[in-house]
Amino acid sequence: MTIPRILVVDDDYDMRQMMTQFLRQNGSIALPASNEREVRSHLDGGRVDLILLDVMLGDESGLEICGRLRHEQSVPVIMVSALSADHQRMAGYAVGADDYIAKPFNPELLLARVKAVLSRARRSSSLVHRRNTRTFTFEGWTYHAKTEEVLSPENVQVALSRREIALLQVLLANPHIPLTRAEIATALDVTGTSSQSTEAMGRSIDVLVGRLRNKIETNPKAPRILRTERGVGYVFSVDVVARDG
Questions:
Q1: How many CA atoms lie within 13 A of 26 on its CB side?
Q2: In this predicted model, what pLDDT tens digit does every residue of 137-179 receive, in sequence order?
Q3: Residue 102's CB: how many other CB atoms inside 10 A?
Q4: How many Cα atoms within 13 Å fall on the side-chain side of residue 113?
Q5: Where in the chain is the domain with CATH 1.10.10.10?
Q6: 199-215 per-position pLDDT tens digit
Q7: Could you please report the per-residue DSSP string of the chain?
Q8: What is the domain class of 5-123 according to CATH?
Q9: Rounded to an integer, what distance in angstroms lies between the CA atom of residue 55 and that of residue 100?
Q10: What pLDDT band is residue 53 in, cutting at 50, 70 and 90?
Q11: Are 98 and 52 in contact (CB under 8 A)?
Q12: Which of 32, 36, 48, 175 is the 20 to 30 A CA-CA neighbour of 197?
């Protein structure tokens, strides 16, 4: 089994030491860094499986660093910050973060979130990050991310709710990859505040999938695009072509 290599980026020496030591004690190779130059040095020097990135790094912005990294590579990023309001969390997800943890945090919670993101990353790149300047095509359909416009094969605009668009974005970013209901829910619940039970969460995802099928499938009762993967969840089972602009 590969031992995960985790880059801990924080300009606070004590916090950086605490996090690296804790991760090492729990089976990871933890690499310390305090700024973007050191981050890039580690990335150039070998494999990095996950980055724990503080939002405020002295004169540097962790959000800006995350945005630049996300345009270059798909290494998962968990933002760590004392700023925990919803709009601050959303800012992290908007630049491509896979998760967002508020300080102070329970180290065991940090470990659980690290394991969850690493597990997802082994199966696909970030489920949350979506470049908002791309155009996606599939089975004659077109989705313009910048305007959130959805056009049918007949070039007719189809109205989707915000939640349906969010689901479509997750699916377009992960074609042919079976996704569990929990993974889909995690990608949709970007504030990380969902208090639904597992059963209720599963039902809400099923309802949302049904609504999207009614709009993009020729026969929603026998779907060809958004199919059920028995024992797993759902899979977007057609090719997706993405281009900038």
A1: 15
A2: 999 999 998 888 999 999 999 999 989 998 998 898 788 888 8
A3: 16
A4: 21
A5: 134-244
A6: 788 889 999 999 999 99
A7: -PPPEEEEE-S-HHHHHHHHHHHHHTT-EEEEESSHHHHHHHHHHS---EEEEESEETTEEHHHHHHHHHHH----EEEEES--SHHHHHHHHHTT-SEEEESS--HHHHHHHHHHHHHHHHHSS-SS---TTEEEEETTEEEETTTTEEE-TTS-B----HHHHHHHHHHHHSTT--EEHHHHHHHH-TTS-----HHHHHHHHHHHHHHHHHHH-SSTTS-SSEEEETTTEEEE-S--EEEE-
A8: alpha beta
A9: 10
A10: very high
A11: no
A12: 175
**pLDDT value at position 197?**
66
Q: Which tokens go with 60?
A: 């540097």
Of how many residues is the chain composed?
A: 245
CA distance 245 to 243: 7
For residue 193, is pLDDT > 60? no
Q: What is the pLDDT of residue 231?
A: 85
What topology does CATH give the domain 134-244? Arc Repressor Mutant, subunit A (1.10.10)
pLDDT band at 94 (very low <50, low <70, confident <90, very high): confident
User: Both tokens of residue 239?
Assistant: 């090719």
Measured CA to CA, the distance from residue 138 to residue 122 in angstroms comes to 25
One-letter amino acid identity for 181? R
Tokens of residue 89, six digits: 């969390």
Nearest of 44, 98, 88 to residue 66 by alpha carbon: 98
pLDDT digit string, tens, across residues 180-192: 888 788 777 643 4
First-to-last C-alpha distance (Å) of the chain = 41
